[in-house]
Amino acid sequence: MKIEIPAVEGFFTVEEEAHLIGGRFKKSGSYCFPKDLGGSDPNFPEDEVEEVLLSRFGKIWSYTNSVYPPPPPFIAADPYEPIVIAAVELEEEKIVIIGQVVNGYRVEDLSIGMSVEVKVGTLYEDSENRYLTWMWKPLLEEQKQDKS
Amino acid sequence: MEDIAILGAGMHPWGKWGRNFVEYGTVAAKKALDDARVEWSEVGFISGAITVRCGYPGYVAGSTMARALGFNGTQVASSYAACASGATALSVARGQILSGACDVALVVGADTTPDGFLAPNAGTRTDDTDWLRFHMVGATNPVYFGLHARRRMELYGATQEDFALVKVKNSKHAVFNQNARFNKEYALEDVYNSPVVSDPLRLLEICTTSDGGAAVVVSSLDYAKSIGVSDPVRISAIALNTPTYPDPLIDLPYLATDSSASTLPSETGFKESIGKYVYEEAGVGPEDVDVAEVYDLASSMELDWYEQLGFCQPGEAETLLRDGSTSIGGRIPVNPSGGLGAFGEAVPAQAIAQVCEVNWQLSQRAGNRQVEGARIGITANQGLFGHGSSVLLRR
């Protein structure tokens, strides 16, 4: 049994109902992702960032794929299956975040405005570990009803 | 700000030559000096655009080029702003001229590029969004181009045929440009037969990486007059914009946009602000522009620029393309050089190469790709991490 660990620590929680870990600016109420790499609102010069869990659900803003394996530092599977990537808008945070779409989806399966949730999936693996990243997963019909 | 004069321009042809970038830069610089009829010894300031792919000599490109031309004590600076490096180097030179620190400056950029995708330098840097986007997502540059192309299809009904027609148009222009890497005229079928790289964009619609070099010799208007150049092509404005927070459009190399939760986005988007800046500085409007060189990393991005530079309203770019307005012979020819689609990226050289082309257009020396009667031209470019650039030239 391989051990599952985040490819880089501090970007998401590892659980069934995963969350992205972002930053919230205390004074302005703005957000960023990742927490420590966000731009500042110049209207709030002395602001501080605190760690928050971002909304689990969002809507696809746009989507594409990478038919060819991306170069390092991406670690491509061999054989490589084209990865699908979506930019997803989180309504409350008013932010768009990119991420891979979970395995099994092609660009033909996606559309702009589609509801998705954050999941954790395998980015790459070696003989001992499975390295994880955040991924977007389209919601099934019944999940959409649950959410509403 | 006062205008400065372009006395000469020169390029090393773009290609995949695999030689030292210094050679390309030196060839371009010597051609620009010959074109200007200025001796290297008369240059008071050399402004180099940096390459990060060729080791330390690339980081100090200005002095590397000065040494190749012959160290003679000339003042030097080197600038990096990713794809906007050339415009930054030009702006530094303009500042030196207009402050009176020098009369004549040489601006030069050159690069030798690896095959395939541009990628971060080696190493592990979990605090570098450029490293993170590759490692955690696999988001190459074409991934971002694909996201925006798909968005354009959704918002404005753009089609893959529209994107392909940009490539077809620019390839027709490039046939007449010996400095372009690809001189072949492509048909729609050629584009459709090339493989998808990042849906909906195909290989022939995404610019490759190239070796190449470009240089311009610039001076004060007084100096130009003193050597008998009374009607030079002039640089009237240079923009080096950063975005305004919050920028709501996802762009490389970021994993996320700014959040609009605290402040509403500006009515003028980042790329729109670049053109607006030079129009205001030069006191002209988009309706005055006769020719444009824009940064078509992907064919779909050229369409975005038509709107961002004010040549038409949002959603009208496809009409402008299809009615021939942006072809040579049309109302506002765009990328008469063939654009990056025909050249490929030679990062530090490309913003300078755009200025070379507009210079040749405005001085009526563009041969078979001449835009008749062109008197005002604009370039537009963008370097990742928020470096917008534009240069407005006129005669």
Describe the secondary-structure layout.
The complex is a heterodimer of chains A (148) and B (395).
Chain A (H helix, E strand, L loop, with lengths): L2 E4 L14 E5 L5 E2 L16 E5 L3 E10 L16 E8 L4 E7 L13 E11 L3 E10 L2 H7 L1
Parallel strand pairs in A: 1-9, 7-9
Antiparallel strand pairs in A: 2-3, 2-4, 5-6, 5-8, 6-7, 8-9
Chain B lengths: L3 E12 L5 H16 L8 E5 L6 H4 L1 H9 L5 E5 L5 H14 L5 E8 L17 H9 L3 H16 L3 H15 L13 H6 L2 E3 L2 E2 L8 E9 L1 H6 L6 E7 L30 H13 L8 E3 L5 H10 L8 H6 L16 H5 L3 H16 L13 E8 L3 E8 L1
Parallel strand pairs in B: 2-3, 2-4, 9-10
Antiparallel strand pairs in B: 1-7, 1-8, 4-7, 5-6, 8-11, 10-11
Helix pairs in contact in B: 1-3, 4-14, 7-11
How much helix, percentage-wise, in residues of chain B? Answer: 25-40%
- Average of pLDDT of chain A: 95
Quantity of strands of chain B, as a count = 11
> Beta-strand level of the residues of chain A, as a percent range?
35-45%
- State the low-pLDDT regions of chain A, or none: none
Which percent band covers the strand fraction of chain B? 15-25%
Q: Which chain pair shows the most residues in contact?
A: A-B, 52 and 49 residues
The helix-and-strand class of chain A reads mainly beta
Specify the overall morphology of chain A: globular
Give the distance, in angstroms, between the N- and C-terminal Cα atoms of chain B.
Answer: 16 Å
Walk me through this protein's architecture.
The complex is a heterodimer of chains A (148) and B (395). In chain A, a hairpin with a 3-residue loop joins strand 8 and strand 9 (129-138). Chain A contains 1 helix and 9 strands, in the order E-E-E-E-E-E-E-E-E-H. By secondary structure, chain A is mainly β. Chain A has a 5-stranded mixed beta barrel. In chain A, strands 3-2-4 form a 3-stranded antiparallel sheet, with no helix packed on it. The model of chain A has no long low-confidence stretch (mean pLDDT 95). Helix content of chain A is 5%, strand content 42%. Chain A has one domain (3-139). By secondary structure, chain B is α/β, with parallel strands linked by helices. Chain B has 2 domains: 4-116 and 211-233, Peroxisomal Thiolase, Chain A, domain 1, CATH 3.40.47.10; 129-205 and 235-394, Thiolase/Chalcone synthase (Peroxisomal Thiolase, Chain A, domain 1, 3-Layer(aba) Sandwich). Helix content of chain B is 37%, strand content 18%. Chain B contains 14 helices and 11 strands. Chain B has helices spanning 21-36, 56-59, 61-69, 85-98, 129-137, 141-156, 160-174, 188-193, 221-226, 270-282, 299-308, 317-322, 339-343, 347-362; strands spanning 4-15, 45-49, 75-79, 104-111, 196-198, 201-202, 211-219, 233-239, 291-293, 376-383, 387-394. Chain B has a 9-stranded mixed sheet with strand order 3-2-4-7-1-8-11-10-9, with helices on both faces. A two-stranded antiparallel ribbon of chain B has the order 5-6. In chain B, a hairpin with a 2-residue loop joins strand 5 (196-198) and strand 6. Chain B starts with a strand and ends with a strand. At the A-B interface, strand 3, strand 5, strand 6 and strand 7 of A face helix 5, helix 6 and strand 5 of B.
